[in-house]
Amino acid sequence: MIPFIVIRLHRVTSTQSWVKDWAEMGAREGLVLIAREQTAGRGRLDRRWESPPGGLYLSLLLRPAIPLAQANHLTMLVSLAAIDACQAIAGVHPRPKWPNDLLLHNRKLAGVLTELAGEHNRLRFAIIGLGLNVNNTFADGALSHAAISLREVVGKPLDVDALADAFLTALAQRYDAFLAGTSPHAAWAQRLEPLGRRVRVMQRGQPPLVGRAIGVTAAGALQVQDDMGVVHLIWAGDVAILQSE
Ligand code: BT5
Predict the structure, then answer these.
(1) How close is the Cα of 75 to the center of ligand 1, in Å?
(2) Digits of tens for pLDDT over the chain (245 positions)?
(3) Domains and their CATH numbers in the chain
């Protein structure tokens, strides 16, 4: 089983940036940095990740010997382990949303950020960050309609350290199974939003694509069928569910 080395700090810029630096310096697989607060937490494309005290913010270093094309499976593993932890500690069961969110009551509970370093199509290392809203609230902030925290759902504060421990325990088990050849795809795709729904896909530098999300490939690409019947493979982007259609 993977030996996690966990470092806990009060406040950092971004757990992701620190672990990335340590990875470049040769840190071993299993290094985890957990912070109580981030001053420069980030999402994909350098978007801001709101990281006030009360949330769970962590990044971990993995070095599996896999092709780069399989790296999406690491995002799936982390999402599934975060769902396991929410179930164990808070008794709720968030849904994964393609490509990297966890949703509860259709709002964003958590985000996963996977950053890769590779060489000749092989993965050198992956830094995977998880931001999970636990006791922080969004009552009157800019994210009040888009984000949600476990506390808002269960109505009482939860133990962030216990959530982190449950997450790492679940991840260790799922990662072991992954290294032994079990793909996380089926478990992840099972309740995946927005499968079956009409969506608008935004991809960098491309016009919006409207269609139906009909599937997700084994490697993690979303399949969206447009109104002409053409199926598009989406590897990266943002998906909005068109509620009214
Ligand atoms: C993500 O990006 O969802 C990945 C977030 C990863 C954060 C973790 S925290 C630990 C580690 N260290 C870091 O610096 N980062 C990682 P993306 O899909 O790009 O979503 C970003 C968008 O989510 C923002 O533009 C906001 O709209 C929204 N958002 C920001 N903070 C949020 C929060 N606390 N809860 C819910 N939504 C949030």
Answers:
(1) 14
(2) 888 999 999 999 999 999 999 999 999 999 999 999 999 999 999 999 999 999 999 999 999 999 999 999 999 999 999 999 999 999 999 999 999 999 999 999 999 999 999 999 999 999 999 999 999 988 777 898 999 999 999 999 999 999 999 999 999 999 999 999 999 999 999 999 999 999 999 999 999 999 999 999 999 999 999 999 999 999 999 999 997 55
(3) 5-189 (3.30.930.10), 198-241 (2.30.30.100)
Tokens of 206: 């491309």
Give nearest CA residue, ligand 1 atom 3: 111
Instruction: HSE, CB side, 13 Å, CA atoms: give it for residue 188.
Output: 31
Q: Determine the distance separating the centroid of ligand 1 and the alpha carbon of 42, expressed in angstroms.
A: 6
Q: Which two tokens stand for residue 167?
A: 């997450």
**Cβ–Cβ < 8 Å for 27, 59:** no
